[in-house]
Amino acid sequence: MPKTNVLTIVLGGGKGTRLYPLTKDRAKPAVPFGGKYRLVDIPLSNSINAGFKKIYVLTQFNTASLHLHIGSTYLFDAFTRGFVEILAAEQTFDHQGWYEGTGDAVRKNFVHFRTQNPEHYLILSGDQLYRMDLEDFFRQHLEHDNDVTIAATTVNRQQAESLGILNVDRSTRIAEFIEKPPAGVDISHLKIPPDLHPDRAHLAEGREYLASMGIYFFKASALERALSNELADFGKEIIPMMIKSEKAGAYSYSGFWEDIGTIRNFYDTNLNLAGINPAFNFYVERSPIYTRRRDLPASKFNACVLSNSIAADGSIITNATIRHSVVGIRTIIESGAELDGVICMGADYYETHEQRALNRERGIPDLGIGSDTRIARAIIDKDTRIGAGCRIGVDGRNPEDGDYGDYHVRDGIIVVPKNAVIPAGTVI
User: Fold this and answer.
1) CA proximity to 269, closest of 257, 260, 282
2) Distance of alpha carbon 221 from alpha carbon 245, whole angstroms
3) What value, to the nearest 5°, has the Cα angle with vertex 11 and ends 7 and 15?
4) In angstroms, rounded to a whole number, what is the distance separating the alpha carbons of residues 143 and 2?
């Protein structure tokens, strides 16, 4: 099967307001995930594992850390003829403004895409968690000679409210598309006929509708036609138009898929990775999820109690109790600390003895989590300093959602942002 004529485009999204404050100083695709990864590693790895190694990532906000991560991670040799490059929004003589939507972002970069002479485009989202056989997806796209093929998964009626719902016939041709139908709208005619349902287990769970995943294969010529206008968004405008005017088909996917674009989804999906049988499995040798190679030492646990937790490379944890948590790279946790339901993203560097001594003279806590500190139901971003004896999210305290300077609360989850300093003895 030809693969070199496929160009992958990863849509990095806009400001990432739903993931704020994790996106305060970084692009959404660069948000750390799973202890050692970044969100962008998921779509990039899916594409690379399928053999589609010509990839552009489109973004426009806080791109510095994303550039650093991609530039130091996705390095192909001269024989591979692959690349991963970031295309941030730029001013040109033809385009003066920001990306106005997902379709507009693609339109404004055709000048770069055309140099690769693609025959097909693969469009992926930068904030979803899944492991899909994109090669099989492409095979169906070719066999049906579709202008566009939409990856779709089964959902229930409540989930349908936030997704685009498809009506697909026996030949996988899409006959109708409704974007985010409200709860009061009758869409029962869009239910998948039981004999056509792709997954019997999903049907038993009440997942009777087929929803677009925001993952597409386009013929290059069809995508050029679809974007030869001012339409800005794939889901709201471009896909509905193409279903009426082009040959549009659906590819049914029954595996795990999660949109992790909100703090709640981000928190729940991360902690699920630490379960006994996580919904998403990183431990698949033949289709790994790639990330930056840091050459860090193994993590060290000194007299600790850990349950249903994962710890990334380079951490040093002493006499601590950690339950149902994710511990990121280079995390330092001091004696007597307790973590329960915590995502700790770790640090970008180790402090030297001299740096610690100087900071202590200024009353600044060490990098990491101090002794006898207790934390529950929280996200601790990178390079955070939490002093000794702090109590965060414990003692039955449930702060209301809002921004509180040194910390934020979203969906009842406390978020301590990157580089924050929480003095010893603080209670949140």
Assistant:
1) 260
2) 14
3) 160
4) 13
Give strand pairing partners of 148: 218, 248
Separation CA 280–CA 31 (nearest Å): 18
**pTM greater than the 0.90 cutoff:** yes
Complete domains list, the chain, with CATH: 6-272 (3.90.550.10), 300-422 (2.160.10.10)
Token pair for 98: 């920001």
Q: Place 27 in a pLDDT band, splitting at 50, 70 and 90.
A: confident
Phi, psi at residue 207, to the nearest 5°? -90, 85
Quote the CA–CA distance of 53 and 75 in Å, as a whole number: 11
Q: Buried b vs exposed e over 314-331: b needs ≥16 C-beta within 10 Å?
A: bbbbbebbbbbbbbbbbb
Rounded to whole angstroms, the Cα distance separating 335 from 228 reads: 61
Tokens (6 digits) for 399: 């702060």
d(CA 291, CA 69): 8
Among residues 255, 261, 260, the alpha carbon closest in space to that of 284 is found at: 255
The pLDDT confidence band at residue 428, using thresholds 50, 70 and 90, is very high
pLDDT of residue 81: 84
